[in-house]
């Protein structure tokens, strides 16, 4: 097995090409509609439709651009929402509806606590976060994407907000929403994941 190592993001075109192939893993059932669309005075990296009929705008930022990306995402969301009727007229077979929700997914290498708080304030129905990391295996690179749950905190945040007794008595649920009972895990098997 080749050695994997984290690398800096490649040139933007290469990064977006790799991310295009990972979007379905990040949000299962996502259908890509457009790429590099000019929106509210800036490009929207990807426009997609999720299985529930919501339009998902995906914006990709570099390290340190995460808070700026929140503002840009809100502006693009408003711009797209105002034009959904026009898009439906131009392409009625896309599966868009006039009442389709418009959501934003922001991808960055990291998010500051300030950015996480801003996204939490607008709510998960409006905006979500995902971290991407680039890894190299000697023959090329891949982009790994981890979707962040709105109430998921950093390790430092967890240490400040959870008292030691809570941490021992209330295990965190799986990100999928499955429980130990769903998986049939014994207490010993569960401890292996902790």
Helix-strand pattern: EHEEEHHEHEEHHHH
User: Which structural class is indicated by helix and strand composition?
Assistant: alpha/beta
Low confidence ranges: 151-175
What is the share of helical residues? 25-40%
* Overall strand count: 7
- Tell me the distance between the termini: 26 Å
Specify the biggest β-sheet. Answer: 7 strands, mixed
| Overall number of structural domains | 1
CATH architecture assignment: 3-Layer(aba) Sandwich
Average of per-residue pLDDT values = 79
Features:
194 residues; alpha/beta; Trna Endonuclease, Chain: A, domain 1; seven-stranded mixed β-sheet; 8 helices; 7 strands
How would you explain this protein's 3D organization?
37% of the residues lie in helices and 25% in strands. It contains 8 helices and 7 strands. Strands 1, 2, 3, 4, 5, 6 and 7 form a 7-stranded mixed sheet that branches. The longest helix is centred in the middle third of the chain and has 16 residues, at 66-81. The protein is globular, with a radius of gyration of 19 Å. 20% of the residues are buried.
Question: Could you write a compact summary of the structure shown?
Answer:
The chain is built from eight helices and seven strands.
